[in-house]
Amino acid sequence: MATGVAAVLLCIGVSLLFLLFAGNKEADGAQTRATAAWNRVVPLIRQGPLPSVLTQGRVEAIQVVNSRGQVVAATPQLVGKPPMADFHSTNSNVRAARVLCPPAGLQGCMTVASYKVYQPGGVWLLYVAVRVVPWYGSTTALLLAIGVSLLVTALMTAWSFRDLTKAMAPVNAIRAELAEITATALDRRVPVPRKYEEIKWLAETVNDTLDRLEGAYQQLRRFTSDASHDLRSPITAMRAQLEEALMHPQGTDWPKMTVAVLAGVDRLQAIVSDLLTLARLDARAPLSREPTDLGQLVSAELDRRTYRMMIVKDLRQGVVIDCDRLRITRVLVNLLDNAERHASSQITVTVLADGTDAVLEVVDDGAGVAPEHREIVFDRFTRLDASRDRDAGGTGLGLAIAREIAEAHGGTLTIQDSARGARFVMRLPRRRGRQDAPKVSGHSGKLGGS
């Protein structure tokens, strides 16, 4: 399309140059005709005989005016008429020219040339009139230029339309394919053309987007399936316990049955609470950030709770971050709950500064996580077999929530190598500028792990 427009503009430019050339050539021709008339009449004035009626030749009109201002000779249309003009050269030049609209005795605009002819009795004037030459030369040249321009424009338009039609064919194919892609056919991809780089890039981008969409949809389906399963299990167990109690009310240990049902309710509540937390994180709910000394925050939380395992603390002070304290505390609680499920006897909690990062590490002395499982454990509702064996009450959402919170703060949560057990490392950006923070107090509200 751009090539066609450029060609049309070039054609128009060439046509204008052609018309200017034709106009200049026609103007030169008019001046040549006037000069020829001068060469023909001046000898008659000087040598005679000068007829009263002159032949017109290739000019429009001729007049000869004597030194007393009388017309002594003229072409037929000006015989007996006054001079067609009243100007002459006022300097040493013999010739002067003006455009008159019209000259006396004539019609239309004409270029009148005035020539001085020196005679013994004074200066005579020879007037020669020719038609005014337009800038484009002649009507024939103008029509020729217009015709050629229209022809070239039509050809280029047809060529551009054909090329555009070919270029739009892959776009139409992409549109048709996208129109047929539904939630049940996310594996389909749009065709990628070999020509037209821009459309090729568009198709590749669309396919990349479809890849991400398919992955997200599959993850959503797995998430929905896992959530349904984890919610169904405690509901099924509670229903069975209640039905059995109703069938045998006299033989039921109601306090024991109530405790079992309440345990199922607690598990359902934990799952729902975690799901709501993930929903808020997915919605990118705003964080209540404030300067916080990470070491003091961790120390306060560790002192507030009791643990089944021995906690070894290595907490550096002055490691300040801008964070939502409640959510960072949730990360710590989830990591500690996970460590308690897998530790043999000891959990080590470390806070330190590493360049521009604040680092929180939670390390247990359990069996650890195999390298091939270090990313899987952060998927929602993922619990490895060892985790299920040791704690069947977990929701499988704790580590997913912890990573989402870390990423919402612009940080990361990963599993790193360690001599023994699992080593969870959270990195958050340290606060720039002044590295002080208000004293961290205890937190209210339920922050239970998963």
UniProtKB/TrEMBL annotation:
It catalyses: ATP + protein L-histidine = ADP + protein N-phospho-L-histidine. It comes from the Bacteria. Residues 430-450 are annotated as: Disordered. The keyword Nucleotidyltransferase does not apply. It is found in: Cell membrane. The keyword Ribosomal protein does not apply. Keywords: Kinase, Membrane, Phosphoprotein, Transferase, Transmembrane, Transmembrane helix, Two-component regulatory system. Residues 165-218 form the HAMP domain. This is histidine kinase. The lineage of its organism: Bacteria, Bacillati, Actinomycetota, Actinomycetes, Streptosporangiales.
